[in-house]
């Protein structure tokens, strides 16, 4: 049984600029893998390659056992994705969004009904099910988007900064859903800026300037840098780069 | 196919939920048709005329009366000085100056030939051309009438077989005109099918492009692209709703054309709808193609608009195709609007059948297939 | 980056804001290129292509009893470079299918015994059947054919009229009725509307959609400053467009400039400002880019193209529709532009049109600022 995500020397260049520079890592089934890095470090580019929105310039990667370059369609059938921008249809209702995505992933009508009901119940959205998504508060929207991304029970879920702009209580609830999903065997790759959240992950990697600068369990990483918190690790790794980036711009 | 059903439901829900869009899709076309159809005509009804009559004869007054009697020319000024009249034309209070020189009547009687000067404000060129042709027809008729008054039997003497010629200066060779398909020369009948094409095209191509780019901007396109929807399903789900809306618009438009403008519909409506189906594939394809090359709705709108403007103005809609230089006529062969406009006009107004418009149908099919093919190929779920 | 450029007051904030807006446009190379090249392309393209005149009339001859006279007239028709004879038939049955296919424009039907009647001087009748589905073109073509027949008749010595009133036509300001001279002022109006009203409406409603407008609105900038900052770059762009279009018209088509170029440029700026104010108002009143765009097209592009005298003369409109044209800014601008370019008149003749545009500008701008404030509250 291969890893849920297996990445080898994956690289992406835009002209002269190398956004992702030969990264190699793997994520095991059921793992919650934290993908950290400063803005512009290449996290989103890496995710876009893994979900088949962007072709790698070189290297290879497989997700759920399928190669992302040659078999992107099979990859798509087995993944869920939630981007940093909220991307459900704001002018559709909660239920309509659920039906749409259920339908797209080929669920039967019964499955859509049952899972939709469970989803709405789980989020306590019963009263808002017929309301347009645009009218929901941000935290609810994010939880809804995540639950919809899980609707077809994908093997791997990619969450790109799912908790940006969300209040601490909602964030906690969010992570509860993440753990629930991981316990059910779903592999989760999540990017975040909140280093306290990184502590919740089974393993993390910190990207700096397109490369993976550190990887391991949170305590391993802290140990390696002799730091008390991930915050310190992050600051140490990122600061020189951040200054360089600022000068570059 | 089942997935397509879900996507179509979503598209229709989104369209029908936006009241502004809905109004613009179904009410605006009717209003536009009503207003624009009246706007597009070259017929000139009230030419403001300044008269400079230096002859003061009954004949010179007759010239003015005959022009005024046509109802198209309205004498608004009369003066002895051409300078005054020129000033009136410069400030736009008259469009035309009639100058009748001194000795006009005397010349007509003695030399049988006299001149009048008609000066038009050609600032508005189309109108000037039309006024000229009205005026020459009126003056030709007036010449005949005057001739008959002064020299009742002259023309009999002039023609070789005088005895058998008709009296009162009737010409020997008479030319009769008959205009088929539109004997009343109502320009609106000609323009309404063309305007319908504009409306349907705008709805089709513009909304297609905007629709997809909107999802790009909102980020929902990426979300769809990571799902296993096939390219064909996605494109079909985008095109079918707008295609059907454009077809409904066409139907509404045809009803208005019939009821309000009494546009004759001699040919087969089925043929019109078949042709529209093919044409819209191309029009929507252009929208789809544009949506693949731009990032924002602003760019999409601007590109579509520029393209449409060129296509419309070069498509024989407002100015005759046949008046264009050869290269532009070749370009028109590649212009789907030109073919569809020609087809609509000829089927509706002349009752042309499939065989008569086979060339246009073929061209529309080829253009539509190419455009749609290119657009579908261009559309990638992932970027290279 | 340069917020602290001046004294730190509002003026420098506005300045920085305008710079930011300019950057937005300049960065978007694709749009910028189109925005700069489009007017040029339109003037050249339409200048060459749009003509109302037709130089190729396809004639079907129906001649039931050919004789020397019919052949002579037929030869005269076919000898004219403007005509081509597509078919010669015995009966009128051929005409209908030809018209339906759009393969002939006009049919000349000779009566039986045409030559005989002419030589013995009896009255005879030629019939011209035109495909009048396009009435204008049909009458134009009929007039061309008529002229040839008349000259033939004159040479044969028939149809001498007893007296002739010979009209001498003068086409003042545009003697050859050169269509490009007429289109250029209109095209300038159209392009200006496109880059001003349409682009601002969309750009502003985009900021509204994204919520970036709110950030501007909570800044110390006043609503009018925000509006000015947003429209300034488009105004510059519009100005560049007018200049390129005029240069192209002058170099390629030798369109006359009889009046003051400075006045024309000034009026163009005034007109562009009206367009901008209209765009802002549309953005303020609509809720999405899509709606703004459709709104802009409906209230600006179509009326300003078709109700402005650009293609179809305003004097041709039915009476009830003429007052509607007063609402289209392009209608006034076209009068100004044609007046300056073709007639060479100045302010003393065109002040009315300018006043109308200024009033429109004030009304639209006030309404735009008001509705923006209303949105804030």
Describe the structure.
The complex is a heterotrimer of chains A (249), B (384) and C (377). Chain A is built from 9 helices and 10 strands. Chain A is an alpha/beta fold. Chain A has one domain (29-40, 73-248): Rossmann fold, CATH 3.40.50. In chain A, the strands form 2 sheets. A 6-stranded mixed β-sheet of chain A has the order 6-7-8-3-9-10, sandwiched between helices. In chain A, strands 2-1-4-5 form a 4-stranded antiparallel β-sheet. In chain A, α6 (168-183) links the parallel β7 and β8. The mean pLDDT of chain A is 86. With 384 residues, chain B is of the alpha/beta class. Chain B contains 16 helices and 5 strands. Chain B has helices at residues 2-17, 19-26, 28-39, 58-69, 82-90, 104-111, 125-150, 154-158, 187-218, 220-225, 231-259, 269-293, 297-313, 326-333, 336-350, 358-378, and strands at 47-53, 73-79, 96-100, 113-121, 173-180. Chain B has a 4-stranded mixed β-sheet with strand order 2-1-3-4, sandwiched between helices. The model of chain B is unreliable at 153-171 (pLDDT under 50). With 377 residues, chain C is of the alpha/beta class. In chain C, 66% of the residues lie in helices and 10% in strands. Chain C has 14 helices and 5 strands. Chain C has helices at 10-27, 29-49, 68-79, 95-101, 114-120, 135-155, 179-210, 212-218, 223-253, 261-285, 289-306, 322-325, 329-343, 347-376; strands at 57-63, 83-89, 106-110, 124-131, 164-172. Chain C has a 4-stranded mixed β-sheet with strand order 2-1-3-4, with helices on both faces. Classes of the chains: A alpha/beta (249), B alpha/beta (384), C alpha/beta (377). Chains in contact: A-B, B-C. Chain A binds chain B through residues 51-55, 72-73, 76-77, 79, 81, 83, 85-92, 96, 99-106, and chain B through 2-3, 5-7, 9-10, 13-14, 17-18, 218-220, 222-230, 381-384.
Describe the structure using short key phrases.
heterotrimer, B: 384 residues, alpha/beta, abc type-2 transporter like fold, 2 domains, four-stranded mixed beta sheet, 16 helices, C: 377 residues, 14 helices, 10% strand, disordered N terminus
Secondary structure topology:
The complex is a heterotrimer of chains A (249), B (384) and C (377).
Chain A: E1 5-14, E2 17-27, E3 32-37, H1 43-50, E4 58-63, E5 66-67, H2 72-77, E6 79-82, H3 94-104, H4 109-122, H5 138-150, E7 156-160, H6 168-183, E8 187-191, H7 195-198, E9 203-208, E10 211-216, H8 218-225, H9 230-248
Parallel strand pairs in A: 3-8, 3-9, 6-7, 7-8
Antiparallel strand pairs in A: 1-2, 1-4, 4-5, 9-10
Helix pairs in contact in A: 3-4, 5-6
Chain B: H1 2-17, H2 19-26, H3 28-39, E1 47-53, H4 58-69, E2 73-79, H5 82-90, E3 96-100, H6 104-111, E4 113-121, H7 125-150, H8 154-158, E5 173-180, H9 187-218, H10 220-225, H11 231-259, H12 269-293, H13 297-313, H14 326-333, H15 336-350, H16 358-378
Parallel strand pairs in B: 1-2, 1-3
Antiparallel strand pairs in B: 3-4
Chain C: H1 10-27, H2 29-49, E1 57-63, H3 68-79, E2 83-89, H4 95-101, E3 106-110, H5 114-120, E4 124-131, H6 135-155, E5 164-172, H7 179-210, H8 212-218, H9 223-253, H10 261-285, H11 289-306, H12 322-325, H13 329-343, H14 347-376
Parallel strand pairs in C: 1-2, 1-3
Antiparallel strand pairs in C: 3-4
Helix pairs in contact in C: 1-9, 2-7, 2-9, 7-9, 7-10, 7-11, 7-13, 9-10, 10-11, 10-13, 10-14, 13-14
